[in-house]
């Protein structure tokens, strides 16, 4: 996913207008197709997924300081988006977040691998959480529905008005990338990076940084696809590690595997043994206007 930063000195809009509130929508539970061979939308339909930002307000946001009233209004919208995200995802249960590219079609071997991963995560009684988009995000959500598990997506508002994939029990749409990334981390006891590009690398290294700096506990991190991730690990060993920018312990935190079964076993072992995960699903309170997953 790419964020276009504004050119310095670019002309600002003549008049600032407050944007419409971020949209949060919930998908009704989607039963799996009776014909399991039903294919998702074609890759061409998602060829521009996550490539740009079209809303002028977002570029305006990144231009630099603005008036006090403008900044206060924006801070309030960010706060409102945070609160709505917290309340919407409060009952999702313990999650495993799967990062991955939106550009791999259903025919790709990595799609099948990630779909199996989603199935095994659901069978382990974790909620599968993704970015809610197509490609490998869809594959993980689809695998969760294969096992009749819980499937959740945190989608991002994009210029092409892309719809979340159809294998979600619940999804929340965010305007700001940093709010979305917070939600992907907050509810998870493990993280899996399926093959992906800049967006996946951004999410992976943010999680690695949070663990390295002690901002979150040593939650398990899995790199799915030995052949795909080996060049990255080789670079980390030959440059950052040799120059003491990272430690061997940082690399040892990550499991690299081609086996979804091994990945989920690793996550289960860390979640139950290291953190003593024992979860009882809470009940929504109607007088607080709370809603469950379904």
Features:
Rossmann fold, alpha/beta, 294 residues, globular, disordered N terminus, 39% helix
Radius of gyration: 20 Å
- How many E strands? 7
Series of secondary-structure elements, N-terminal to C-terminal: HHEHEHEEHEHEHHEH
Biggest sheet details: 7 strands, parallel
Strands ordered across the widest β-sheet? 4-3-2-1-5-6-7
The residue fraction in helices comes out at 25-40%
Apparent shape: globular
Distance between the termini: 29 Å
Portion of residues in beta strands equals 5-15%
Mean pLDDT: 80
Task: Please provide a written account of the structure.
The chain has 294 residues and is of the alpha/beta class. It has a domain at 84-276: Rossmann fold, CATH 3.40.50.450. Helix content is 39%, strand content 12%. The protein has nine helices and seven strands, in the order ααβαβαββαβαβααβα. The protein has helices spanning 56-62, 68-88, 109-123, 136-146, 177-186, 198-212, 226-241, 248-252, 260-274; strands at 95-99, 127-130, 151-156, 170-174, 188-193, 221-224, 254-257. The chain has a seven-stranded parallel β-sheet, with helices on both faces. It is globular. Mean pLDDT is 80; it is low at 1-40.
Topology:
Blueprint: H1 56-62, H2 68-88, E1 95-99, H3 109-123, E2 127-130, H4 136-146, E3 151-156, E4 170-174, H5 177-186, E5 188-193, H6 198-212, E6 221-224, H7 226-241, H8 248-252, E7 254-257, H9 260-274
Parallel strand pairs: 1-2, 1-5, 2-3, 3-4, 5-6, 6-7
Helix pairs in contact: 3-4, 3-9
């Amino acid at each position: 996913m790419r964020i276009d930063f504004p050119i310095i000195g670019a002309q600002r809009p003549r008049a600032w207008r407050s944007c419409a509130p971020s949209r949060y929508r919930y998908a009704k539970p989607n039963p799996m197709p009776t014909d399991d061979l039903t294919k998702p939308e074609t890759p061409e339909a998602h060829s521009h997924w996550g490539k740009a930002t079209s809303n002028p307000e977002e570029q305006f946001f990144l231009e630099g300081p603005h008036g006090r009233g403008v900044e206060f209004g924006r801070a309030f919208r960010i706060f409102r988006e945070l609160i709505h995200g917290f309340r919407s995802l409060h009952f999702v249960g313990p999650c495993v977040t799967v990062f991955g590219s939106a550009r791999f079609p259903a025919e790709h071997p990595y799609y099948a691998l990630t779909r199996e991963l989603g199935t095994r995560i659901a069978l382990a009684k974790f909620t599968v959480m993704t970015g809610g988009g197509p490609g490998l995000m869809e594959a993980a959500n689809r695998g969760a529905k294969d096992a009749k598990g819980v499937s959740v997506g945190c989608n991002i508002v994009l210029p092409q008005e892309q719809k979340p994939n159809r294998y979600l029990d619940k999804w929340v749409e965010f305007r700001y990338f940093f709010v979305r990334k917070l939600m992907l981390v907050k509810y998870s006891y493990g993280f899996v990076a399926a093959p992906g590009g800049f967006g996946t690398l951004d999410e992976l290294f943010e999680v690695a940084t949070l663990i390295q700096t002690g901002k979150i506990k040593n939650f398990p991190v899995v790199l799915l696809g030995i052949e795909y991730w080996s060049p990255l690990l080789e670079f980390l060993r030959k440059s950052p590690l040799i120059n003491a920018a990272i430690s061997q312990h940082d690399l040892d935190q990550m499991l690299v595997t081609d086996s979804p079964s091994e990945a989920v076993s690793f996550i289960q072992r860390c979640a139950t043994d290291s953190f003593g995960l024992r979860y009882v699903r809470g009940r929504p309170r109607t007088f607080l206007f709370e809603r469950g997953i379904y």
